[in-house]
Amino acid sequence: MFRRRSGRALAAIALLVGLAGFSSAPAAARIRPIPPTPQPPHSIVRGPHDEGVPLLMYHVLNVPPPGAPFPELYVRPSDFAGQMAWLARHGYHAVTLDRVYDYWSRGWALPRRPVVVTFDDGYLTDYTVGMRVLLRHHWPGVLNLEVRNMRSPTGMPAWRVRNLVAAGWEIDAHTITHPDLTTLGAAQLWHEVDGSRRIISREFQVPVDFFCYPDGRYDAAVIAAVKRAGYVGATTTNYGLARPNGLFTLDRIRIDGTDGVAGFASKLDDVRG
Ligand SMILES: [Zn+2]
Fold first, then answer.
1. How many angstroms separate the alpha carbon of residue 119 from the centre of ligand 1?
2. 177 alpha carbon to ligand 1 midpoint, in Å?
3. Is the CATH number of domain 2-21+53-64+71-272 3.30.1140.32?
4. Gap from CA of 42 to ligand 1 centroid (Å)
5. 2-21 helix and 158-166 helix, angle to the nearest 10 degrees
6. Residues 151-164: pLDDT tens digits?
7. How far is ligand 1, taken at its centre, from the CA of residue 61, in Å?
8. Which of 24, 52, 125, 176 could crosslink 243 through cysteines, CB 3.0-4.6 Å?
């Protein structure tokens, strides 16, 4: 807990420094801090605290270019904005996975209708579109960062990740090079799982509590490595509500380019039963 708090304090300092004068990072001037998380003792849940929570899974927020190899990974910016507005209209509040974990493990209350908005890999549009839209609602996102994407022209350079942290985002690990982890030997598996956590926490001075399996591929050896590296949970591409009885195989709800707002709404309604 202490590490998490200190991560937020550092994020606040980073924000102030950013506002004070990084003219090379103009987007920083528009970032407003997320309101502070309600703290105990006034927000402890009495009784069970094991409700499932929807974790939304996004990749690129853009129109797919002609011939894009994986067009289903693209969600149009207008659709994403409409989907977030739909959530707000229906009483949802986006939170981080760390907050969901605090609720499951300690009973710290979540807002009504919690939802987690996750972005896999680290595409530039998750910053240029995702953060901008979420800030309208004063919501954080969760970035599952593939470390290599900090060096890609269509990726997420470190200064942008820093701004996401300052805007209240959680940064989780999604390996260094996005391999199929079930095919790796023990040393390479450890390098990808433990190494990505170390790089992200050192670079951004934040706790990295969750891991996201590349392409949703995992087996018993992969899960064991994720646990040994110190993560408290991991997200998959399995469809459903995330529940605390499967912390290392958390289900998510994939949102793709064909959903629009209506398909998005029916996915959420269906999964909640
Ligand atoms: Zn991925």
1. 9
2. 10
3. no
4. 38
5. 110
6. 999 999 999 999 99
7. 14
8. 52
